[in-house]
Amino acid sequence: MSVTVSTEAVRVDGLSRRYGAVRALDAIDLTLERGITGLLGPNGAGKTTLLSVLATVSEPDAGRVSVFGLDPGDAAERVEIRRRLGYLPQELGYHRHFTVAAFLDYVAILKEITDRRRRAEEVAMVLTVTGLEDRARSRIRTLSGGMRQRLGIAQALLGAPDLLILDEPTAGLDPEQRLRFRELLSELPGDPAIVLSTHQADDIAAICPRVIVLLNGQVRFAGTPAGLAGTAAGQVWAADERDNGAHLSWRGGDGRWRHIGEQPPAGAELVSPTVEDGYLLVSHAAGTR
Amino acid sequence: MTHISEDLLTSYAVGTAGAINLWSVEAHLTGCASCRSAVSAHVDADRLARNRSVLLVRAAIGDGGPVRRLLRRCGVPDHLLGVLAATPSLRASWLLSVLAVVAVVAVEAAAVSYGWIGQPAPHASPEALAPFLLVAPLLVLGGVAAAFLPVFDPANRLAVAAPFSGFTLLLVRTVCALAVALIPVTGIAFVLPGPGWLPFGLLLPSLALSAFALAAATVMDPRAAAVLAGLAWMVPASLLALAHVPLSIVQPDAQFACAAVLFACVVVLFARHSRFEMGLMK
To answer: Where are the alpha helices (DSSP H) in B74-129?
Structure first.
C-alpha cells in the first residue's frame, strides 16, 4: 500500500476581496506547498491583500482559505494558524523607542513564548540568523532602513513558523543583504512553507522553485520560474536599434535593445528569455503594461 | 601539582559533573592555567556561543525597571508586563502630559475658588470646578483610547497576526491605562476646593466613558467610538456648566446613569469580544 504525503500548506478557492469599488482579489484559486513560493506582480496587483488574508489579518469577502487544513474563519482554528505563522507586513511599524532585543522580546510574547529563558534563546537565535546580534541593544530609531527590514524578518522567524509570509522582504536591502537573505531562506530548518512577494524577478529566479504572477487581482501564471521564462521563448530579441513594433523594448546595460514580440526586428538575434522577460510578457498580455 | 583527570574535565565541560566534583574542579581551575587550557578543548564552542548570545540578549532586554520589578514581585506574570511596554498611555511622556493638564485645570479651580484671580469669593464656588469636571474623565478616556486604538500601536499588524488573545491584550492594557490615569485625576480632586465626595464622583463617569468607547468600537470605527464617547461627556458637562450647575454631572442622578451605561457596555464588550481578535485591538 502506498501512502501519499501531502505537501500542500495553503489552499485558496474563489477568494475575493474588495476595497470599496476596487476589486483587490478576483475569485483567486491557488495552492501553496512547502518550500518557497514567489508572488510576483506590480503595485496594486493584490499581493499585499492576498498575503494579509493568508496571515489572518484580513477577512475575505468571498471564497475559502485553508491553511494546513485549518479554517481561518473559525476562531479556534485561526489561533492555531497564528501559532504556526511568521508574518512580515509590507509596512511594518516599530515602537521606535524599543531596543532591537526588547522589540523581539515583545513580539515573542505575542507569539505566546511566555518563558523568559526560552524567549531570550529565540531572540538570540533570530538575531544571529539575521546578522543583527551586534545591534541587540540599539534603539530601533537608530537603525538604517536595511537593518529595520532585517529586524522585520527576524521577528517573523520567531517561534520557528511553519508558514512564513513575507511581504516585500527584500525592499530596502542592499545587494549583499539580498544575497544573505536568499541564503537565509534557503537554509531555514524544518521545511516551512514560505511565500514572499516581490517586484524583483531576480529574487524569484534565485530562490523560488515556484512562482505565481498576480495581476489585477487575478492569478495569471502559476508554475516554475523556468516555466515563466518559457512563456517568452522565441519572442525575446536583441538588436542594435529600437523596434517600435515590439510589445516591449528597453535598452540593456550592454547598450543593446532588448525586444519582446512575435516578429524579430531587422538584424535582431533570438536570445534566451529570463524570468523577467516572461513576467513582462504575461503582464503585457494581461493589459497591465 | 596534581591535575584534573581527562574524564573529569570532560564531564565538567559537558555539564554532567556532580556538585562536589564541580566545586573541586572550579577551585582547581582558578589556580591552574594548564587545566584551564585543557578544559577549553572539551567545550562545545557552539553551545558557548549560543549561551553568550542568550546572556547578551537578556542584558539587552533588561528587567524593565523598578516598576516592572515590583509588579513581578507582586505576582504579575512577566509576559503581561511585557505587552504593557508597548502601551503609549503608560509611557512617561503621556503621564507627564496628563499631569500637566490636570495641574492646569486644578490650579485654575483653586485660583478662582480662593479668589487668587478675579473677585474674592466668600465661599468655594462650584462653578470654578467646571473645567476640571469637563477635562478629568476625558483624560482617563484618552488614556484608554491610546491603549486600544490601532493608530497608537505601530506594530499593530504583528499583534493581529499573533496568537496572543486580542481581548486579553485589550483588557490588560485598558486596566493599566485606567489605573494610571485615575490616580492623578482623583488624587488632585482630593485637594481641590469642592465637595468631599468629588474624587469618588469622578470614578463612575470615567469608567462608563471608557467602557462606552470600547463597546462602541465593536460596532464602529474605533476612532469614531472614542470621539463619540468624548462627546457623550463634553456635551452634557458643558451644558450644565453653562447653566451654572456643573456639579450636577457627578451628582446622584448622573451616577446612576453612568452605572447603567457601564453595566450595559461591559455586557456588550464581553458579548462581542471576538471582534477584538480580528484587527481592531490586536
So the answer is: 78-84, 92-113
> Cα–Cα distance between A54 and A76 in angstroms, integer?
16
Give yes or no for a contact between A103 and A155, defined as CB atoms under 8 angstroms apart.
yes
The beta-carbon neighbor of B274 closest among A75, A83, A133 is A75
Q: Are A238 and A269 in contact (CB under 8 A)?
A: yes
Q: Which residue in B53, B54, B61 has the most chain A C-beta atoms within 10 A of its own C-beta, making it the best mutation to test that interface?
A: B61
Q: List residues bridging with A62 in a β-sheet.
A: A16
pLDDT per position in chain B (282 positions), as tens? 688 888 888 888 888 888 888 888 888 888 888 888 888 888 778 878 888 888 888 888 887 778 788 888 888 888 888 888 788 777 777 888 888 888 888 888 777 777 676 665 555 567 778 888 888 899 899 988 888 888 888 888 898 899 998 888 888 888 888 888 888 888 888 887 777 788 888 899 999 999 999 999 988 888 899 999 999 999 998 998 888 888 888 888 889 999 999 999 999 999 988 888 776 433
Of A58, A111, A120, the CB nearest to B54: A120
- What are φ and ψ of residue A219, in 5° steps? -80, 120
How far does the CA of residue B153 sit from the closest CA of chain A (Å)? 8
| Whole-number Cα distances in Å, B134 to A72, A129, B140 | 44, 53, 11
Angle (CA) B94-B99-B105 rounded to 5° is: 130
Query: What ipTM was estimated for this complex?
Result: 0.84
Top residue of B46, B158, B272, B281 to mutate, by most chain A CBs within 10 Å, is: B158
- For the CA atoms of B25, B30, B35, B39, the dihedral, rounded to the nearest 10 degrees, stands at 70
Q: What is the CA radius of gyration of chain B?
A: 29
CA distances from A191 to A7, A125, A185 (A): 10, 17, 10
The cell numbers describing A246, all together, are 515590439
User: Which residues, at least 6 apart from B198, have a Cβ–Cβ distance to it below 8 Å?
Assistant: B129, B189, B192, B250
Residues B210, B174: contact at Cβ < 8 Å? yes
